[in-house]
Amino acid sequence: MSEDKAVAEETPTPENYDELHDAPPKNRLRLSLIGKISVGIVAFWIVIAVIGPWVAPYHEAFFIEEDANGEYFDDPSYMLPSGLAWLGTDYIGRDVFSRIVWGARTTIGISFAGTILAYFIGITLGIAAAVNGGWIDTLVSRAVDAILTFPSIMLGLIIIAAFESSIPLLIGLAGVIYAASVYRIARALGQDIMVQDFVMAAKARGEGLWWIITREVLPNAAIPLATDFGIRTIFVILFISSLSFLGLGVQPPMSDWGSMVRENMEGLRYGLSGGAIACVAPALAIASLTISINLIVDDISAAAGGNLTKKMV
Amino acid sequence: MWHMILRRIGVGLILIWVVSILIFAMTQILPGDAAQIRLGQQTSPEAVAALRKEMGLDQPWFVQYFSWIGNLLTGDLGISVAGGATIQSLIGDRIGNTIFVTAIVTTISVPLSLFLGLLAAMLPGGKIDKVVTAATLGLIAVPDFLIAILMMLVLAVQLDLVPAVSLLNGTEGFWKKIYILILPITTLVIVVSAQMIRMTRAGVLNVMSSPYIEMAILKGVPRKRIILRHALLNAIGPIVNVIALNLAYLVSGVIVVEFIFSYPGLAKFMINGVQTRDIPVVQACGMIFCSSYIIFILIADIASTLSNPRLRHPK
């Protein structure tokens, strides 16, 4: 009787099966509380990016010149937060809150488009190089090495000096620069998967190359690539924002978080009781987005067993 | 070993050469006409043609490239389009300023990151580790300029402790200079250290999962001793690599920081060049920055070769 009980306890039941140290990774993703909050923040900004222009109190280029009673302001720049302008006004009297809401579209839109482009180029070439080998592999790998010898912001500066800055140029720039790192990962993953038994089996069955790529290679590379997508998005957001901050990215009068920080830097000198909020608020908006993405990625890799801390203890 | 190091140096030189071709190609050939930019749109075609001849733009591209690279190698960086002064006279002091800041930042951030990284790796999952991991995780995702403007706001504006802009007149003593530069230095230390701490921690923990560490644990060696004697020594290679890579990150961090604090360094000069589309300035500064980046990475490679006995004495 007691022996039976002991055996029953040791046999993994569906309840404690997941807790075994050699249990396979769970399919269902469980986010921690911080992870859930982060998902909320990212979702919030994405919604704002989509509906921003319809919910913002003012147009991004609107100057607040008069108060609710129709009285003109002596100096509409760097006004403190009020019912009229929730986060105050910027250096020439535009509503900071509205500009952040409008800017979400520009900043997130460009960064997202840049990351997608980087992924499209990187994965296509990476998988092609892994599957094909030969001259494609050599050629693209050398080109990628050349791109990676530049600090990314330096490459941005040089290209922008040559061509004038524009939104398509920014997207293309981010796409090409970050495609280099995506290519390396996709190629390494692809090469690993191509020598697995199930690919051999598929080849032996006589499956075509396209079938193998779409049914065997891509699904198996999806999870590591998804984590990397998050990290890459952060890099692209920071890259685009830094260029805008330096005055070389999105050009006025369009609002964009990075350029808003630069435009209102003068306001910092007036302190928190002056225009500092116009400068700090957009920077905090960027940080809230990038930190949240980072926390989500960290949560996902922790759930997938990638977190060293949890393994060590 | 010497063979390997010489080969790495050779590869580094080739990379610098490739970078020079790319910088030249991106700035000189693709956008078409530097003479047109210099004279503006409202000029006669004859004037543009005369200037093209004077600037050597009517020559084939490889002649232009070799005269440019030849001048670079002999220390002639070209002439700034804005103002017409030679670039080497313009960047003389600025290079010194940039090197000064990066040297100070390196001296502070390297020991600091090694210390904090090791401290976190001592007890993974412990309180210190959690704080360090969370702080660095947040910091690496934050734009450099956020840290800079927050520090400027708190330390320079609200508390009025330190100067908000880093303007030097060249006569300050060492400590006075440090005082004026305290904000850019602190910003860069934070930016660079966050990454280095994470990688030091990861490097040590990575070594900690190898069989000989398991052996040491089973022998009953105390954890502190395992980390300092077994793990750290074997993690030196990766850590040195990380340090050099982060000095390379410093190249980008310095761009944003010099811009914010109006520091008269090389990066600020280059940004001005980009804004005014002063191509010779961008080419010269781009070459200096990219070459130093490649040299840092080269040093990292050599250092990790030297620190690994198996690579030092190949079979």
> What structural class is derived from the secondary structure elements of chain A?
mainly alpha
CATH class of chain A: Mainly Alpha
Please tell me how large the radius of gyration of chain A is.
25 Å
CATH topology name of the domain at 93-269 in chain B, in short, is: MetI-like fold
The shape of chain A is elongated
**Strand-and-helix sequence of chain A, N→C?**
HHHHHHHHHHH
Level-1 CATH class name of the domain at 93-269 in chain B: Mainly Alpha
Number of DSSP helical runs of chain B:
14
- Compressed to H and E, one letter per element, the order of chain B equals HHHHHHHHHHHHHH
In round numbers, the mean pLDDT of chain B is 80
Structural domains of chain A: how many: 1
Number of strands of chain A: 0
Specify the overall morphology of chain B: globular
Most extensive chain-chain interface:
A-B, 50 and 56 residues
Q: How helical, in percent, are the residues of chain A?
A: 55-70%
CATH homologous superfamily caption of chain A: MetI-like
Question: Structural class of the helices, strands and pairings of chain B?
Answer: mainly alpha
